[in-house]
Amino acid sequence: MKNEEKALSEREKILGRIREALTVSAPRPRSQGDLSVQASAEPSANHAREWLPLVGASVAEQFSLFAKNAADLKADFRLLASRDELKAALLKLRDAENWQRVASHGGELTDFTCKALGLPVTLTDRGYDIQEMEKCDAGITECDALIAQTGGVAVTSRSAGGRALSVLPPHHVVIARREQLVADLPAAFTMLQSKYSPDFPSMISFITGPSRTGDIERILVLGAHGPKKLTILCV
Amino acid sequence: MSTFVSDFKTRATEKAGDLRHRLVIRTALRSYEIIRDKRKAAFQSWESARQAAAETKWEAVNHLDKHLEALTAKLEARGTKVHWASNGEQAREIIAQILRDKKARCIIKSKAMTSEEIHLNHALEKEGFTVVESDLGEFIVQLRHEPPYHIVFPSMHLTRGEIKDLFQKELGDAPSDSPEELTMVARRVMRQKYITADVGFTGANFAIAETGMISITENEGNARLTAALPKTMITLMGIEKVLPRFSDLALFLPMLATAGAGQPMTCYNTMYSGPRQPGECDGPEEWHVVLLDNRRTELLADAEQRDALHCIRCGACLNVCPIFRNVGGHTYGTTYSGPVGSVITPHLRGLQEWKHLSNASSLCGACTEACPVKIDLHHHLLQNRRNASASEPAFFERLAYQIFGIVANEPLFWSLAKKIGWLTQPLQRALKGSALDPAKAWTKTRDLPPLPRESFKDWWKKRK
Questions:
Q1: pLDDT attached to residue A31
Q2: Three-state SS for B65?
Q3: Per-10-residue mean pLDDT, chain B, length 464
Q4: Residue B314 has what DSSP assignment?
Q5: pTM over 0.90, yes/no
Q6: B344 near B311, Cβ under 8 Å?
Q7: Are B205 and B158 in contact, with CB atoms under 8 Å apart?
Q8: Are residues B262 and B154 in the same domain?
């Protein structure tokens, strides 16, 4: 009880100092005479689309931008024409990397994938053994969106089998639908908000390429702690 | 002279003359500006984006109480425990108490400058907890028992050879000096730590008032794992991190990546809105968010410099600063180095003890130009100089300028001074830089050009 009272008073003290400080107003940021800069009275991050990198209007342009961005990030992206092609691509990956066991979660696309692979699967849906997942060769998940502007994918703890599945195994394979492509980041945020608000999954993650680090002489190394490989298969 | 000043001067002198250090930093930052500019150019309007980011941060910081209350209410509604800490000591005690309650032994951390600010590792280790830094750069500097060199690139000052030797000595595992193999050593060491640690600790890049979320930006996936596997999660964030809306991230995430490292997006940008929720298969059972003031409200009270709280800790101002590049990150002796560190440290730790940082600037303005949220950094350095000398005037400096004022205003004195100056020139050359030279701090490394026999005024008179 005493601790709670103390915590409450600390909160009031900090909020009190903030309110006291804000009685003096600070000047708004100005565009410093540069007329090409659009200054607006209203908070303007809503218009982010107008300033962020340009994205083509057609779906074909957006897919080619996604493919280019994904390649720059060293992610492997494939746009597949049918479920048969998806199956063929999966089997090729399985054999090339000699997968023995994969981890995944329940879902229409992932169920198809696991069946196609014909390997033992660690499913996360009803809880899982962490050591067992750590030994899996790949983590296979669905996603919420592919973002053309960045070449990244958005996953959540609800759509992609929890928090660890997309980062613990050494190879993250995303199975996506064509309709999941969105043009840019503002569209991705709007989509997430309309899909989930107010009951958001406890984790939403924008994954933009495989895990990486530049902490040694600023030289890029893939697979620092998360997956060394990211494959995005889109049907 | 306070020890902070003399330490700064000693280290700065040493580092500025250290060619190896200079080469390492130049190598590390060589490509930064090129790729950052390429990424900036990809924006339809980087300048408008900066303006929007500055306005959004202005709105957030100038209604901080409202946004913090909204954030807290949303977080608590989903089962997150929110703690408030006025200073570092309170924050350390809150965190230590959670660890004691959980009977924790090992805590795995992802990168958090706020934890450096409150010297958390030291305090926890003193209580017997094992603290493991999981970010590669932080792990390296932790093994070396030194603070991060740079707020974004903690081990930027080290070569692969030095890191290899370090791993060999501390871990007994360093197959070669290839960055790839060294990274894999850290990966192997860390894997089991995520799984066995009792508590995961993270910092925060942004907090969203509208939806009650904490957003964490990282490249390695270590924060993702830290927030996924241990049963308890603790997040420490400065109170200024809050943004009003979820959609604001659509602007701030790519801007942080571009300004900080010349990336279009950082690899993992993750928003957490609670501990494991019903129906979810993993994630911590408990999540504690600690909101840290630690004199941020004093900076908030300075309306002139309030925008320094807009900082998103991208490190862009450090990367472009000629002083930072010459004296290096450790010379500052502060948690936050470079231009933004020089601006905020006097507010966070005391103006008189840290006013020398305001002079660690050429006032070239490269920092202000690089800042993605348009903090007027170099003017704030000038304001800190003004405030420092107003509250504690430097007696001899003031006296020197008063005498100069009198001499320069009186033609007779001025012409006398010129003659004396010319006559005493050989003496100046003899004493230059020695203990007897009153201006030795300046003249030690600089030559005074010889004074001409004839002044311009005399020449002009003769010409007529």
A1: 62
A2: helix
A3: 88 93 90 93 95 95 98 98 97 98 97 97 97 97 96 95 96 92 95 94 98 98 97 98 97 98 97 97 98 97 97 97 96 97 96 94 96 97 93 84 94 90 86 82 82 86 86
A4: -
A5: yes
A6: yes
A7: no
A8: yes
* Token pair in block for residue B423: 């006559």
- Give the single-character DSSP code of B107: E
| A51 vs B contacts (CB less than 8 Å) | 43-46, 48-49, 52, 251
B112 and B184 share one domain: yes
| Whole-number Å distance between alpha carbons of B109 and B393 | 44
Distance between CA atoms of residues B312 and B336, nearest Å: 12
ipTM above 0.90, yes or no: yes
Taking contacts as CB-CB distances below 8 angstroms, the residues of chain A near B27 are: 217-218
Q: Which residue of B136, B184, B195 is in closest CB contact with A131? A: B195
- How does residue A41 score in pLDDT terms, banded at 50, 70 and 90? very low
Interface test with B, best of A2, A38, A217 (most B CBs within 10 A): A217
pLDDT at A1: 47
Contacts of residue A34 in chain B, CB cutoff 8 Å?
A: 47
Helix axes B249-261, A185-196, angle to 10 degrees: 140
Q: Residues B187, B259: one domain?
A: yes
- Is the CA virtual torsion A202, B261, B151, B248 positive or negative? negative
Whether A15 sits inside 8 A of B68 (CB atoms) is yes
CB B370 within 8 A of CB B319: yes
Residue A187 pLDDT: 96
User: Does B301 fall in a domain?
Assistant: no
Distances (CA, A) of A19 to A192, B137, B297, B301, B305: 33, 38, 9, 9, 17
Q: Indicate the DSSP class of residue A98.
A: T
pLDDT of A16 strictly over 50: yes
Q: Report yes or no: B292 at the A interface, CB cutoff 8 Å.
A: no
| Angstrom distance (rounded) from CA B407 to CA A115 | 93
Higher-scoring residue by pLDDT: B336, A1: B336
Q: Is B317 a member of any domain?
A: yes
Query: Do B341 and B260 share a structural domain?
Result: no
> Which strands form A203-207's sheet, in the order they lie side by side?
A181-182, A145-147, A152-156, A203-207, B268-272, B213-218, B206-208, B242-243
Q: Look at chain B and report how many structural domains it folds into.
A: 3
Closest-CA distance, A164 to chain B, in angstroms, reads 6
Range of the domain at B356: 1-42+312-392
Residue B207, H or E segment: strand B206-208
Helix (H) or strand (E) holding B196: helix B179-196
Is B162 in the same domain as B219?
Answer: yes
